[in-house]
Design a protein that fits this description.
Blueprint (H helix, E strand, L loop, with lengths): L9 E7 L6 H9 L6 E8 L5 H11 L4 E6 L4 H11 L4 E4 L5 E2 L3 H12 L3 E9 L4 E5 L5 H6 L6 E4 H6 L11 H10 L5 E12 L5 H5 L10 H10 L6 H19 L4 H17 L18 H15 L3 H8 L5
Parallel strand pairs: 1-2, 1-4, 2-3, 6-9
Antiparallel strand pairs: 4-8, 5-9, 6-7, 6-8
Helix pairs in contact: 7-9, 10-11, 11-13
């Protein structure tokens, strides 16, 4: 087994794919960090624009920070897995190539994970473009924050913990990061939620992730990841997972279903709620419970109301009002 060279403490893993328009903003936010105790793996995943040349230029100018890896297009899952393998630091972070971070981001997260001897530190994030912040999702040091924020970014991991427990992303169209984090939670209680926001998730209305999830497309089957989560939590289910599964499906229906037809919405609603019933997932935590107080009241009410509409068999009527897609 080769020794890992640890001259820095953190590796930021960034899959790069056709990011020519926004990669400069991402990298400049990294160069503005107050901490210097990190390095960056920029993994070009078969880009067809000028992304590769752009990141090579940065690596040539800042060789002490950036390392460029080039590969045939393999998808974000395999690219992140490669980043984990190639990292030679005690801690790792993930970042998307459109996003940007506040100047103290690395410093705050690194200090927190070292201070608490944690395996994972979870923080909040902003949904933003280059002009304004659309909304902010804070994190708290409670159990529900672990389920509420399941992106791979806005957090820091102890690398050996990930490798030792073979924590991996699920190769699926959507939800690969949800599986990764819920899988990680099975192996540790050393998880810290931090009320800090320093990660900016860039909003692009025409991004691949936004476009592909519109209209309840069959290839975006949310049950692929939920079935896998159900398997690994078979003997460890609790009320938080029950709430998460139901909430996840309701939010998926509302987010993706608004652009679907009423008919398509109802087909998907029946299929997904049948799955919930067959697997005995229910809203086991009432919307007013302090256990989920870190979830905004508006969100809790939406989930609770949709669940009530389902029990009253009024989802069909709701869909005729809510859905914008053509029949």
């Amino acid at each position: 087994m080769r020794k890992r060279k640890m001259d820095k403490k953190v590796t930021i893993i960034i899959p790069v794919y056709n990011a020519g328009k926004n990669i400069d903003h991402c990298i400049k936010s990294i160069l503005n960090q107050t901490s210097k105790d990190f390095k960056v793996l920029l993994i070009n995943d078969g880009s067809t624009d000028d992304s590769l040349q752009r990141i090579i230029n940065y690596a040539n100018e800042y060789p002490e920070i950036f390392t460029v890896l080039d590969q045939k297009n393999s998808g974000v899952v395999e690219t992140r897995h490669r980043g984990i393998r190639e990292a030679d630091t005690e801690y790792i972070m993930f970042m998307d190539n459109d996003d940007f971070i506040d100047p103290d981001y690395v410093e705050v997260l690194l200090n927190e994970i070292e201070k608490n001897n944690a395996d994972i530190v979870i923080t909040g994030y902003r949904r933003a473009n280059f002009e304004k912040v659309l909304f902010t999702i804070p994190a708290y040091d409670d159990i529900w924050t672990r389920y509420r924020i399941t992106a791979p970014w806005a957090r820091i991991f102890r690398r050996d913990f990930i490798v030792k427990n073979n924590v991996s992303f699920l190769k699926t169209y959507i939800g690969e990061d949800t599986y990764f984090n819920l899988n990680a939670y099975l192996y540790t209680d050393k998880i810290k939620g931090l009320n800090y926001v320093g990660y900016n998730w860039y909003y692009n209305d025409e991004s691949v992730s936004n476009v592909k999830q519109r209209g309840l497309k069959p290839e975006c089957d949310v049950l692929i990841v939920l079935n896998e989560v159900d398997k690994i939590y078979k003997n460890k289910r609790d009320e938080y997972l029950n709430y998460f599964m139901t909430r996840h499906i309701i939010w998926y229906l509302l987010f993706s279903g608004v652009d679907a037809s009423s008919k398509r919405f109802n087909e998907e609603y029946k299929r997904l709620f049948k799955w919930l019933n067959e697997h005995n997932y229910k809203l086991s935590i009432p919307f007013y419970s302090k256990k989920i107080k870190s979830e905004p009241l508006r969100n809790r009410l939406i989930v609770s109301i949709f669940d009530k509409l389902s029990k009253l068999r009024l989802v069909g009527l709701f869909s005729r009002i809510y859905c914008k897609g053509k029949e």
